[in-house]
Amino acid sequence: MLLWLILGIVIGAGLLFLKNSSIKLAWFDWVVLVLAIVFYILAIANYNGSMEELEPRAAMFLLASFGIPALLLTVIVVVRALRGRTTA
Amino acid sequence: MPFSLNRREFLKDMGLLGIGGAAALGPIEALGESWSDQAGIAPRPPWVRSVDKPTVEIDWEAIYRFDERNTVRRGWSKYLDEETFTRLNTQRGTIIYDHSNAGKPGYSVRDIALYKASGIGSDQSFLGPDNVTTPEEGGIPRWEGTPEENSEMIRAALRAFGAATVGFVELDENTEKLIYATDPDGKEVVISEEQDVPDETEEQRIIPKKARWVITWTVQMSQEGMTRCPTPLGAATTSMAYARNRAIQSRLQGFLRGIGYYGLGEAQTNALGIAPAFGVMAGLGELSRLNRLITPEYGPMVRVFKMVTNLPVAPTKPIDAGIFNFCKSCMTCATYCPSGSLSTSPDPSYDTQGGWNRGGVKTWYENALTCRNYWAETGTNCGICFAVCPFSVKDRALIHSMVKGTIGTTTIFNGALAELSRNVYSSGPMDEPQKDPEEWWTLDLPEYGIDSTQGHADA
Ligand code: SF4
Ligand code: SF4
What we know:
The structure holds two protein chains of two kinds.
Chain A: H1 2-20, H2 27-52, H3 56-87
Helix pairs in contact in A: 2-3
Chain B: H1 7-25, E1 49-50, E2 57-58, H2 72-75, H3 82-101, H4 109-118, H5 135-138, H6 147-161, E3 166-170, E4 188-192, E5 199-200, E6 204-208, E7 213-220, H7 223-226, H8 232-258, E8 263-264, H9 275-281, E9 286-287, E10 293-294, E11 302-309, E12 319-320, H10 323-329, H11 332-336, E13 361-362, H12 368-378, H13 384-388, H14 399-407, H15 414-424, H16 437-440
The structure holds iron/sulfur cluster (2 copies).
């Protein structure tokens, strides 16, 4: 429960910061960002759940399976945001 | 009831989102009536669909009331020459001590003691205990409810007594054939038009024809126990499930008596009728390559039980959760079976393996004889096939709902998912425990080693 509360606060704060900061994201970036967040949540939830199930091998596999796409999607958004800044 | 989602339901619903994309890619099974639409029934996910006929094909004309003593369980000696039987039977009784002396993991003195002690429990009988006051004796009217109300009531009572999932079958000219003709102890099971009151004599057990309903339920086994199969430590959970059920059965018989009806139970383990068949007809699960029941909630990690009653209940329908279809692509159990007793044919067939199979069902018939002979090498009832099945998972990780939702919706990913499961979950050695038996003693497991909230909405 606490995990979800902390995660909700972190995601909410992050999105608020992005919305109010000078970083301007296109609609496409927002879609990719939301997708990345979904993957992060799946990675954390499955890792956590699998560890509770006493399945560490499955936990690592699922963390990588959902976590790596999440990281790649985040990199896409960050790179595009940085490019936007330099070209602006 | 107010509409609310607890954490687990929320996570499960989130998981189902994942099937949307997957479903778009493959042949989608027609979405039918959900199992949960049936009166008096606990909620199940939408991909557990109610169907009119079980997913396994049944030729009712070829089905007849079977003599339980023809199963290898009871009739092992029938299928072996005398010398082999005597040797294996003796070996089965002593080999756990030989393995123990050889220092085999899972065969320590405490593992053996746990196994032997887990089977201790209450008695069971066909007619049940008579020490619960009937309404007549108490001077109050007996319970009267609609079949739906009765189903709901029995489900709640059985859950309170320790059962996991509950379903109901109405006896007709077909389903009646699933009651054994002869019980394991040799007593004839008679379905009598003449007799209104159930009875038990030296030779017979009488079920009045008026008792038209069968209550069917599952009792959970422990995944953490079963993954230590085929050792005595691993087999303890099977013994425990049977022992727990003896009490559950007696309590249900007492409850039915207390509301003015009767329940006719198993006179001993596996008596009365064919448990997986009743489980399939009641929609508790689907038949599988194991030729046993696989439930959507616990996979094969259950034992299945039944009771005939004169309390009218609303029957529940068979289900299609994609399980039988999944078995066509997955052969994990057959691959891991150390005695090669399970079929490796992709498709089910009507061809039986021996006199222990009654036939009439298009399934994967097992070689129960080689299986039983292998038990003489472990000194237990093995259980490796149950332990490695991809459906034998807990439900804490979101992935299980995503995968089961996908399997229940489309068949296209079945092969890949089976392969993935083999690599991620059952990557242990072929004829040894999947998990370390010694580690089991250090775990902080829940009561009976089962999560009794698994498969249920209300914690
Ligand atoms: S119990 Fe063991 S020997 Fe029998 S079918 Fe299963 S894996 Fe094979
Ligand atoms: S291991 Fe695979 S083939 Fe065997 S019963 Fe389980 S799902 Fe079916």
